[in-house]
Design goal:
Elements lengths: L7 H4 L7 E9 L3 H12 L4 E5 L11 E2 L11 H11 L13 H11 L4 E3 L5 E4 L5 E4 L1 E3 L14 E7 L12 E7 L9 H8 L2 H14 L7 E4 L8 H12 L3 E3 L7 H16 L3 E13 L2 E9 L4 E11 L10 E2 L3 E2 L7 E3 L2 E2 L23 E2 L19 E3 L15 H14 L1
Parallel strand pairs: 1-2, 1-14, 2-12, 8-9, 8-10, 10-11, 14-20
Antiparallel strand pairs: 3-7, 4-7, 5-6, 12-13, 13-14, 15-16, 17-18, 17-19
Helix pairs in contact: 2-8, 2-9, 6-7
Length: 422
């Protein structure tokens, strides 16, 4: 891209609307909400998206899971079947996998930078912590697939003391930590990336790297995921030219630079499709019987808004983004939809039964969410539809842990695309 992703024109909402009437109102600005809005807009619908802040997508590592389990093998279809066996209430039981290809292609069409991957099998990527992850897709700068490209000798470097190189014992690569080239230390990855948005800083870094790795033979270089925040595609190409070899980034962790880039890419996708964005909090729903009529709330500046719509999509995420809150019980705060855990209404369970004392044990409460039918319409404990014109998508769906690194991207893509196309 030639323009910075932080250019204010990218994020400016359509102003002058206190009250709006649209075909579709989407609540939530993460991956599933954005894809819902984009899909509906591509069909000529008038769409407004309401968000209180960034979605959980901003916690992405830069690669995206459709299906990855402890089950051996890379075929995605095999992994999906394993997920269905392990999780009897997983959204994959009723989502249409025929939508995977069109949903990803739609995202690629409106996204400002390239996403590479496969619909059939996982690739093998390396995180900056030294973990091997099987993922279906990755942003181009992080798309070094050790399953294929590992035939080329790769050097993995870290910048000490902030992001040391992972300790690796592998035939696929060698690793080495080198000091950060500036005097500043203990910088956040985001600050390091902003430094490297400047061409002169990247040139200084390239000279520094060359002086420290003369003794190594390698055919590809993997660096920490900090090669620029707003101009990372350009900076990567420049570093390849300066180093004389292909350059990639390792995957990030939570709250990483790649996650911020991805969230900013979603913002650009909304802007490119002229979708109205309201930055504020939806607080109340006007309804009549089983139909939502409007949502009311306040923008971040305090100005009230009201949005009337024929249909609504709820893609507000779970706990990190406020889609589920815990007061005395776990609650969905806007539409007051019933929540479920493995088929049982949460209202019939004590919150303590959904928590485990061991921090490293799987936490049942992370599987809590909204139960829907095959059309993504929310259901109550008797199986009746709660709202006839509301669809629920993304990580708010019950039956899976979106933070478990198995299927978050796949669920968000499939359900978001379906909700926006209904």
């Amino acid at each position: 891209m030639g323009a910075s992703l932080t250019d204010q024109s990218v994020f400016s909402e359509v102003i002058g609307y206190k009250d709006m009437k649209v075909d579709l109102c989407v609540i939530g600005g993460g991956l599933s909400g954005t894809l819902s809005a984009v899909h509906a807009a591509s069909k000529g619908k008038r769409v407004v998206l309401v968000r209180s802040g960034w979605g959980g997508t901003a916690l992405s590592c830069g690669a995206f899971d459709v299906a990855d389990t402890s089950y051996e093998g890379f075929e995605i279809s095999d992994q999906i079947e394993q997920i269905k066996k392990e999780y009897p209430h997983h959204p994959y039981h009723h989502l249409n996998f025929g939508n995977l290809s069109p949903s990803v292609e739609l995202l690629k069409k409106v996204f400002p930078f390239r996403i590479l991957g496969s619909y059939r099998e996982n690739h093998l990527f390396l995180s900056h912590m030294g973990h091997w992850l099987r993922r279906a897709f990755a942003m181009e700068s992080q798309s070094f697939d050790f399953k294929v490209s590992g035939r080329r000798k790769a050097l993995v470097i870290g910048f000490s003391p902030m992001i040391p190189a992972p300790l690796l014992q592998s035939e696929l690569c060698i690793s080495e930590s080198i000091p950060w080239h500036r005097n500043e230390v203990n910088l956040l990855p985001q600050t390091m990336a902003k430094f490297l948005d400047r061409p002169e800083e990247l040139q200084n870094l390239a000279k520094h790297i060359k002086s420290k790795i003369k003794s190594h033979f390698f055919q590809a270089l993997l660096v920490p995921p900090v090669m620029g925040l707003d101009y990372f595609s350009e900076r990567r190409r420049e570093l390849e030219s300066l180093m004389g070899c292909p350059v990639y980034e390792t995957l990030g962790g939570g709250n990483s630079v790649p996650g911020i880039r991805f969230q900013k890419g979603l913002e650009e996708a909304l802007r490119s499709q002229n979708i109205t964005v309201v930055n504020g909090r939806a607080e109340r729903v006007e309804k009549e019987r089983k139909r939502a009529l409007a949502i009311k709330g306040r923008k971040h500046g305090g100005e009230p808004f009201e949005i009337e719509a024929s249909f609504f999509v709820l893609a507000a995420g779970k706990f990190l983004t406020g889609g589920i809150r815990k007061n005395r019980l776990f609650q969905e705060p806007l539409f007051h939809l019933p929540l479920f855990y493995r088929g049982t209404p949460v209202s019939e369970m004590s919150p303590g039964s959904l928590l485990r004392d061991d921090f490293f044990e799987k936490q049942p409460f992370l599987e809590v969410g909204v139960k829907t039918n095959h059309e993504l319409l929310p259901l109550d404990d008797s199986g009746e539809i709660v709202y006839e014109n509301l669809r629920v998508c993304g990580t708010l769906l019950y039956g899976f842990d979106p933070y478990g690194g198995e299927s978050r991207f796949g669920v968000s893509m499939l359900s978001g695309y379906q909700a926006g196309g209904a």
